[in-house]
Amino acid sequence: MGSAPTPGSAERKARMEQMRRAERARERRNRILTTAASVVVVAGLVVGGVVLVDSQSGSKASAASGSKDSAGGPKGSAGGSKGSAKSAKDSGHFVTGKDGVRVWTGRLTRNHVTTNVPYPMHPPVGGDHNPVWLNCNGDVYTEPVRDENAVHSLEHGAVWVTYSSKASKADVAALAAKVRKTPYTLMSPYENQASPIMLTAWGHQLSVQSAGDPGVDRFLAAYVQGEQTPEPGASCTGGTMR
C-alpha cells in the first residue's frame, strides 16, 4: 500500500508544471518572432533586389540615350548645337510696308562689345554695339563713322541719316540742315548702301532718292524717339564724336 504525497511534494510538482507551461509558451513566442523576422528580411531582400534592377536598367537606358544624343539624336548636345548654329545663321530679313519702310524681322541683340560686328545689313538697324554711343543731338558728320557706335545711338532712339556718293550735293546740304534742327538725329556718309539716301532707326529703314521725298519727314516724325526705341530718353550727348 503506497504512501500519500506530502503537501510539499504536491506544491513542488505544481510549480514545476507551471514552469514547464511558461517555458513552452516562451518557445512558441520565440518561434513566432523568428518566423516574422525571417519574413521581414526576405521581403526586404526582394524589394532591394527590385530597386537595384530598376536602377541598373535606368542607368543603362540613360547611358544609351546619352550615346544616341551625342551621336546626333533629337535631344542630344549635338542636336542642340545644330539648333543654335541654325538660329545664329537665320538672323532674319526685311519686310517692306506700304509706306516703304523696311522692318527687320529677326532678333536684334543688344550686347556691348568692343570688337567689330558683322551686321547682316548696311547700314545696320540694330544688334550688338560699342559701349559708347555716337553723339546724335543733330550731329552732322562729314566722314564715315563706326557702325558699332551709331547702332548704340539707334538704341537710344536716334534716326541715322546716311548718303552715298550718288546723292547730289544739294540733297546732302538739305538733309544736313534738317538734321541740325532735329534732336536725336545724326548724319554721315555711307558708301556701302543700296540707295543714295537712307534713314535708319532701330529695326527700321527707309530708302529714298532725294531729300525732297515726303517719306523723309514722315520717317523722322515716326521714329525719332519712336515706339521702336529700346532705351527711350537715353542721352544723345556725352558719347563719341567720331
Automatic annotation (TrEMBL):
Sequence ranges of Low complexity compositional bias: 56-72
Superkingdom of origin organism: Bacteria
Region (Disordered): 1-30, 56-96
Amino acid composition bias (Gly residues), ranges on this chain: 73-82
Bias-annotated ranges (Basic and acidic residues): 10-26
Chain ranges passing through the membrane: none
A Pfam family recorded for this sequence: DUF3105
Name of the protein described by the UniProt record: DUF3105 domain-containing protein
Organism: Streptomyces cynarae
Upper classification of the organism: Bacteria, Bacillati, Actinomycetota, Actinomycetes, Kitasatosporales
